[in-house]
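Why should sequence recovery work at all? Because a backbone constrains its sequence more than one might expect. Tight turns favour small or flexible residues, buried strands favour hydrophobic ones, and helices have their own preferences. The token representation captures these environments compactly. In the example below, the structure is given first.
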């Protein structure tokens, strides 16, 4: 899921801009973070475990001087959550040092590792390092080496790479993970996983970097290079459902508007008599508002989210753990008591959190609880960078909708249809990766698929 950012800002403190860009991308990963900066001669870096604000201060940023910076905030899928796997990675090659920040998941890592020479030492345990080493061991210019990756690496890889004096940003031939570029007000450019990060640093959004495209940013401006390995685009649908911030946009489509439309269509597909509509914060809020608008029912805040409890390094004791979902949410009793409540959420994955939420609402007096989900049932794991769960853990892979309703304790349960979800995005079915919903993946080897598609 990770968030990545790159800054090319002549005459400015690029590391500081990268810091604020990463702050805007903190939702994409909370395990570790790092920034590498170059002054045109030397690349310096700093990375640690933890959140952006806890890692960087004025002293550390002052040591990252230069007009070029690359930043990364990590959510691990391949490679354990330890500091050696934190990014950006710093690599040495025969054409110079570079910093490397990767968002995604490579599906043929073992095959790529076999391509490396026996003398290569891997310090980390992530697929990102293998991808970076392919570039180290490549031949020709940096552009040549990056282009050679496209014919060999499969899976999801949105990457920002900086040399001493240039930035390269590129996406895999399927465009599974997002990456966009903008212009800075005093000259220069910014690249980031989401457009919300561009806005945070004062950059003007230009466009998405295309699937299979390499963008080079230098003192001469920007140049776009298309690779011959471009495939059918397959942007991850979960960017629209959950990952991206609602104030971001993908290919000119507002994430907020898409989620609001999901809620509207959900209300049309699954109406029910009720008194109020609420949403599970935060990602389901636009969908809840959309459901309420379409149904004509009032929208209320039913749960207040503690935005910090999930990001502390202090583990709750057994008594606190037993309170479960109340560590994260507190109910607004006055908006729930004696009422028939529609609860809108973005997804049900393992089916462990939803029954706790339903019970919490009933415990404070909700008369009925009707659950509505702004995505179809998730029946398949993700092999492209989302820690989704295994087939055995996915509740929709093992139970019918009515069985799930009984398991979560709801009076009714309705999922948005696949057609409704796609219509909400403004994209076509052919442009999206729907693997977790349909079992049809864009670029995953058959050996990864361990259960018959349903």
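From this structural description, the recovered sequence reads:
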């Amino acid at each position: 899921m990770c968030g990545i950012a790159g800054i090319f800002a002549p005459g400015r403190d690029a590391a500081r801009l990268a810091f604020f860009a990463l702050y805007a991308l903190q939702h994409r990963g909370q395990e570790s973070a790092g920034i590498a900066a170059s002054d045109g001669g030397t690349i310096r870096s700093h990375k640690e475990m933890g959140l952006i604000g806890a890692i960087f201060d004025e002293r550390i940023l002052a040591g990252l001087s230069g007009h070029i910076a690359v930043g990364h905030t990590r959510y691990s899928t391949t490679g354990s959550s330890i500091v050696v796997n934190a990014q950006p990675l710093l690599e040495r090659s025969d054409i110079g040092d570079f910093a490397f920040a990767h968002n995604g998941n490579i599906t043929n890592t073992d095959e790529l590792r076999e391509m490396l020479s026996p003398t290569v030492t891997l310090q980390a345990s992530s697929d990102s390092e293998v991808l970076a080493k392919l570039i180290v061991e490549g031949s020709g210019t940096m552009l040549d080496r990056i282009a050679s990756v496209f014919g060999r690496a499969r899976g999801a890889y949105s990457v920002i790479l900086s040399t001493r004096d240039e930035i390269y940003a590129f996406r895999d031939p399927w465009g599974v993970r997002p990456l966009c570029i903008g212009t800075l007000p005093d000259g220069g450019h910014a690249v980031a996983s989401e457009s919300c990060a561009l806005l945070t640093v004062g950059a003007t959004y230009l466009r998405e970097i295309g699937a299979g495209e390499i963008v080079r940013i230098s003192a001469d401006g920007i140049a776009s290079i298309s690779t011959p390995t471009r495939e059918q685009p397959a942007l991850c649908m979960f960017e629209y459902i959950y990952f991206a911030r609602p104030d971001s946009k993908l290919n000119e489509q507002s994430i907020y508007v898409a989620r609001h439309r999901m809620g509207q269509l959900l209300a049309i597909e699954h109406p029910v008599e009720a008194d109020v509509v609420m949403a599970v914060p935060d990602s389901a809020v636009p969908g809840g508002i959309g459901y309420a608008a379409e149904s004509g029912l009032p929208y209320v805040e039913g749960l207040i989210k503690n935005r910090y409890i999930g990001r502390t390094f202090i583990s709750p004791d057994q008594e606190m753990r037993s309170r479960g979902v109340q560590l994260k949410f507190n109910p607004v009793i006055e908006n729930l008591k004696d009422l028939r409540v529609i609860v809108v959420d973005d997804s049900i994955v393992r089916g462990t959190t939803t029954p706790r939420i339903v019970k919490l609402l009933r415990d404070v007096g909700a008369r009925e609880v009707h659950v509505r989900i702004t995505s179809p049932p998730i029946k398949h794991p993700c092999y492209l960078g989302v820690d989704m769960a295994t087939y055995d853990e996915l509740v929709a892979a093992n139970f019918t909708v009515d069985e799930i309703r009984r398991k979560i304790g709801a009076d009714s349960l309705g999922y948005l249809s696949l057609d409704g979800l796609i219509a909400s995005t403004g994209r076509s079915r052919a442009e999206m990766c729907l693997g977790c919903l349909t079992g049809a993946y864009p670029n995953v080897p058959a050996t990864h698929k361990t259960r018959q598609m349903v």
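A few observations help interpret the result. The chain has 15 helices and 23 strands.
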